[in-house]
Amino acid sequence: MTKTPPVPHENQSPYPIEEAPHEHAHDGEGEAIHAAKQIAEAKKRWSPDKRQIGMGAAIGVGSAAIVAGLLFWRGNHRGK
Questions:
Q1: Residue-level pLDDT at 17
Q2: What 3-state DSSP class applies to 70?
């Protein structure tokens, strides 16, 4: 007589006893290498062109000039 209670045949554990089979579709390369290749391909697909870089620089310089102007503005001093 065993000490384990009888378990119905249809009842399965919520935790797998054996690990599920893995798919090996990367042709012998690891997951990290596959992810790095995907990131490199994504960077090749999109990169900013010269116009976008120029507009970003112009917006940055303009906003810095506005902030500097607001910081050093003293307003109208009529009482002097």
A1: 79
A2: helix
